[in-house]
Design brief:
This protein starts with 11 loop residues before the first helix and ends with a helix. The protein contains 18 helices and no strands. The longest helix has 32 residues. It is globular and about 60 Å long. It is mostly helical.
């Protein structure tokens, strides 16, 4: 059969409406108490549908990510704003109060992701040299850097690495499959052991009594900061998010060409990329704002609105994917499992050395690999009142994700050459 010359829906306003209806359906059904949906979402992650339903639309010719400008708009405007709204809520004092073991586990998990990618790529490349056969946008390290972004921070950081290192849509589609499959497999393991952490705590020789005092302290913090957002609050949040996004674009327009002309040797590190500077400046200014009263905007929904922007971005990423390409490179799944195994081995080793409770192991790991979407789920599996611990650490992951994934990407680029 001859392929259609274009998608059925080509008007971006229509496509955007379809994506928003899709997101609304996914989240409404995931919150449903109907037995079918409860069972369905026990096995199918919400974020998976946000990626793959638009991908199905693209694969069957209903829409076309290639001819649409929605992804470019979302990545340039919504991505920086979401990074600001996630990092503006970083409460460094609150995170420090979690204790050195919680932070140690989180940072160990981050190191495990940063180093695990190069280690896994090197090992698989040794037994399968064709791994390095790709050229240009299809070079394997470019795609793997997006997994590093996702597993340290989240979808926003993943998209940042996609833009900075320029993986092809086909390669990125395969990476999404590896990311989602491996990450959710590990999350399932964590949820299984969260129901009976005593065995692992006994192995780690850890004292988990501090978890209960932590739970009580978080309840007090939550009660003191939560509030019903007003119109003024929402506009302030959006003002900060998109205002900083505007500043990021303003400075990037100067910095990228300056490095291109004056320091061309740094082009290989993406210093001549305007998008690189947009992401770095937005993240840095968001962190700076977290030391001001702007941090209080979290109490009226800063990260919630950041999540809305992020999921719109996720849907536009999905519409770039052709699902028929996912199984073209199964060796990537081996890389993913070796990568996560390195991360798990390192974090368990450090936990055993410092006698950290399994709660810190699980949440510290998931705050990296799963981000703000799933770290609270793992934390609440221990106790519902502890969900915000996952949020706190995951938000820190958003702050570190861009930098850590960029470093991991450069290491993989170096190994590839």
């Amino acid at each position: 059969m001859e392929e259609s010359s274009g998608p059925l829906l080509s008007n971006d306003a229509v496509v955007f409406g379809l994506l928003m209806v899709t997101l609304a359906f996914v989240f409404a059904s995931s919150a449903s108490k109907h037995p079918f949906w409860v069972k369905f979402y026990t096995y199918v992650p919400t974020v998976l549908l946000c990626y793959f339903i638009p991908a199905i639309f693209n694969s069957i010719g209903l829409i076309s990510g290639e001819s649409s400008s929605l992804y470019k708009v979302a990545s340039r405007y919504l991505l920086p704003a979401s990074l600001v709204l996630f990092t503006i809520s970083v409460d460094l004092k609150g995170i420090l109060r979690l204790g050195p073991k919680a932070l140690t586990m989180f940072l160990t998990g981050t190191v495990g992701i940063v180093l695990g990618g190069p280690v896994a790529m090197l090992f698989v490349g040794w037994i399968h040299p064709d791994l390095y056969a790709g050229t240009g946008p299809d070079e394997i390290w470019r795609g793997l850097s997006t997994i590093a972004g996702s597993w340290i921070g989240g979808g926003a950081n993943q998209t940042a690495m996609l833009e900075v290192f320029g993986a092809s849509p086909a390669l990125f589609g395969q990476m999404i499959a590896v990311d989602v499959l491996v990450a959710n497999f590990w999350m399932a393991v964590l949820l299984y052991w969260a129901a009976k952490p005593e065995k692992i705590d006994k192995f780690l020789k850890a004292d988990s009594s501090a978890i209960y005092s932590l739970r009580d302290r978080i309840e007090k913090i939550r009660a003191a900061t939560s509030a019903i957002p007003t119109l003024k609050d929402t506009l302030l949040i959006l003002g900060f998010g998109f205002g900083v996004t505007g500043l990021s674009h303003f400075f990037a327009d100067f910095l990228a060409p300056w490095f291109e002309i004056n320091l061309p040797g740094l082009n290989q590190y993406s210093f001549n990329s305007a998008f690189f500077w947009i992401v770095v400046i937005a993240t840095t200014l968001g962190l700076a704002l977290s030391f001001t009263k702007a941090r209080n905007l979290e109490g009226v929904g800063a990260s919630r609105l950041g999540s809305v922007l992020l999921y719109v971005l996720v849907a536009t990423i999905g519409m770039q994917m052709d699902l028929r390409a996912i199984l073209d490179n199964p060796i990537l799944f081996l890389i993913g499992f070796i990568w996560i195994l390195f991360h798990v081995s390192l974090i368990l080793l450090v936990a055993w050395l410092i006698k950290a409770p399994f709660f810190y192991v699980a949440v510290g790991s998931q705050a990296n690999v799963g981000g703000a979407a799933s770290a609270p789920i793992v934390a609440s599996a221990f106790d519902p009142s502890l969900a915000s611990v996952g949020v706190l650490l995951a938000v820190l992951g958003y702050a570190l994700g861009t930098y850590g994934a960029y470093l991991s990407g450069l290491m993989m680029q170096w190994l590839s050459t």
